[in-house]
Amino acid sequence: MNIDLPIIPSPKSKKQKKIDSSIPKWAVFSLGIITVLVVVAITKAIVSLLCFGLILAFIWSQATKPVAHFEREPKPTGKQLNLFYQNQINSKHSSTRIKEKKERRAA
Fold it and tell me: Is 38 a member of any domain?
């Protein structure tokens, strides 16, 4: 009983045909590099515009907030020290003193 095994040719003995492409390798690589550069440039532009837009939106929201108006008390109640009111009183008295001194000198 003999078993006849089929003969499998080795890949070295078989000549492989090289497929010739009409596009050279350097053109494919250069096109790939240019595509990557363009995609990176577009991504950088979009990200920077998005960041500036968010910053501008924040500034705009802060600029358009309603301003709080505080009512000023006509006379200080003594609960807080109001130096501005005290300065107004002193300046009124000092201006009347200056006028009185001038009147005294003129008389």
Answer: yes
Residue 24 is which amino acid? P
Q: What is the pLDDT of residues 57-81, one digit of tens each?
A: 999 999 998 887 777 766 656 555 5
Show Cβ contacts of residue 76 under 8 Å, excluding neighbours closer than 6 positions. Answer: 82, 85
85 inside domain: no
Is 16 a member of any domain? Answer: no
Residues 26, 81: Cα–Cα separation, whole Å? 82
Q: How many domains does the chain have?
A: 1
Q: Note the pTM of the prediction, 2 decimals.
A: 0.42
State pLDDT tens for residues 37-50: 999 999 999 999 99
88 part of a folded domain: no
Tell me what percent of the chain is helix, strand and coil, each rounded to the nearest 5.
Answer: 60, 0, 40
81-105 b/e with 16+ CB inside 10 Å = b? Answer: eeeeeeeeeeeeeeeeeeeeeeeee
